[in-house]
């Protein structure tokens, strides 16, 4: 069966704590870097403010090495999100490609302007170019070389009656072997299916999706898949950060508790813990808000399917648990500070009482 559509390779990078979208737009109106165009992007069925900023680079003619002989126009698009992430999507068009051949597109090599790139290398090169342009508007700029990766195969038609389930499962898993796949593996791979009409479907797997739509209107599905992966990226990053913060705060608390002193920097520890908890909580909530759907229940179902596959609820629960641990540490430090203040107050009272007795004794001695 011949396919028409595209293969879309998504890479999302965590580049900082926040990106000032409004400032980028304001500056871009005055002077636009060559090759980039800034555009707000958000359909009316997703409530997000501010919307991510679409930064579109021109398409480039490339050869998909080892898969096809003709030259194709490869599109590279980057989006910046306020939560400190940049996504890069590399789209390779499909026109007259057989469905059976799609497994070869799982990790292709591209030849552009005489240079050979893995798709991931092209994405990394693109995000570095974007950061060189918008870097001044990124808070706590950092460059992670390991992005969240996801591949979406978008085709106008595919056998959806069960006769080609093994082929569809192999496309999703990138299995290029000729060995027959087990029925249990096929069923497991294709179980996350969402359909509206009989001739369309969205199949979701761990690292890839297959979107079948005769109208070739793939934009909404691609966007919601991207937003789910954005959430996963941010949750994973802040989960690791919380592990470090909880360990450091626990060590600080233990160390300060073991000191035999009424004074110290417990107030500084408590303030830092509170600030970090509030900052992380706000960023996590902002990321979760990217999937508030309005009226588009089919797209909401697609999101629910990929959210379940990516285990976003488990990551959310993990983050909530670690934020609660930080809150407990903050409470313990606050109690420790209150206890020290009470002891200090008692010492002052006793000191004043002793001073008064000494003063009375001195006066009594002088009167004798």
Strand element count: 14
For the sheet with most strands, the description reads: 12 strands, mixed
User: Portion of residues in helices?
Assistant: 40-55%
- What is the gyration radius calculated from CA atoms? 29 Å
Distance between the termini: 118 Å
Beta-strand share of residues: 15-25%
Enumerate how many helices there are, as a single number. Answer: 8
Average pLDDT number? 83
Low-confidence stretches: 260-264
Net shape: elongated
Count of individual domains: 2
Order of helices and strands: EEHEEEEEEEHEEHHEEEHHHH
Structural class: alpha+beta
Describe the 3D structure.
With 368 residues, the protein is an alpha+beta fold. The protein folds into two domains: 2-217, no CATH class; 223-357. It is 48% helix and 22% strand. It contains eight helices and 14 strands. It has helices spanning 21-30, 119-134, 165-173, 183-190, 219-258, 266-288, 297-309, 312-367; strands at 2-14, 18-19, 38-40, 53-56, 60-65, 71-81, 85-98, 109-112, 115-118, 138-139, 148-155, 193-194, 201-204, 208-212. The strands form two sheets. Strands 1, 3, 4, 5, 6, 7, 8, 9, 11, 12, 13 and 14 form a twelve-stranded mixed sheet that branches. Strands 2-10 form a two-stranded antiparallel sheet. Strand 13 (201-204) and strand 14 form a beta hairpin. Helix 5 (219-258) packs across helix 7 and helix 5 (219-258) packs parallel to helix 8 (312-367). The longest helix is centred in the C-terminal third of the chain and has 56 residues, at 312-367. The protein is elongated.
């Amino acid at each position: 069966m011949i396919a028409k559509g595209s293969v879309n390779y998504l890479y999302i990078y965590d580049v900082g704590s926040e990106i000032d979208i409004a400032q980028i737009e304001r500056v871009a109106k005055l002077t636009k870097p060559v090759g980039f165009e800034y555009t707000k992007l958000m359909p009316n069925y997703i409530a997000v403010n501010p919307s991510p900023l679409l930064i579109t680079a021109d398409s480039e003619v490339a050869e998909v090495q080892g898969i096809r002989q003709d030259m194709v126009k490869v599109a590279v698009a980057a989006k910046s999100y306020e939560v400190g992430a940049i996504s890069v999507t590399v789209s390779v068009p499909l026109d007259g490609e057989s469905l059976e051949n799609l497994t070869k597109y799982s990790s292709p090599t591209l030849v552009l302007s005489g240079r050979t790139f893995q798709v991931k290398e092209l994405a990394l090169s693109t995000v570095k170019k974007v950061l060189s342009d918008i870097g001044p508007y990124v808070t706590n700029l950092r460059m992670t070389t390991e992005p969240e990766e996801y591949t979406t195969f978008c085709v106008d038609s595919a056998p959806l009656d069960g006769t080609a389930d093994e082929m569809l499962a192999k496309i999703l898993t990138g299995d290029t072997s000729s060995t027959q796949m087990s029925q249990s593996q096929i069923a497991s791979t294709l179980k996350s299916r969402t359909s509206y009409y009989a001739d369309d479907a969205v199949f979701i797997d761990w690292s890839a999706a297959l979107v079948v739509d005769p109208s070739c209107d793939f934009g909404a599905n691609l966007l919601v898949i991207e937003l789910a992966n954005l959430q996963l990226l941010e949750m994973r990053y802040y989960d690791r950060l919380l592990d470090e913060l909880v360990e450091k705060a626990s060590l600080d608390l233990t160390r300060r508790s073991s000191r035999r002193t009424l004074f110290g920097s417990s107030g500084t520890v408590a303030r830092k813990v509170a600030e970090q908890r509030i900052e992380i909580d706000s960023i996590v909530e902002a990321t979760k808000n990217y999937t508030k759907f309005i009226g588009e229940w089919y797209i909401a179902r697609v999101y629910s399917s990929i959210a379940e596959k990516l285990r976003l609820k488990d990551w959310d629960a993990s983050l909530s648990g670690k934020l609660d641990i930080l809150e407990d540490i903050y409470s313990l430090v606050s109690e420790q500070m209150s206890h020290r203040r009470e002891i200090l107050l008692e010492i002052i009272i006793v000191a004043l009482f002793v001073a008064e007795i000494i003063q009375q004794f001195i006066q009594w001695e002088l009167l004798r």
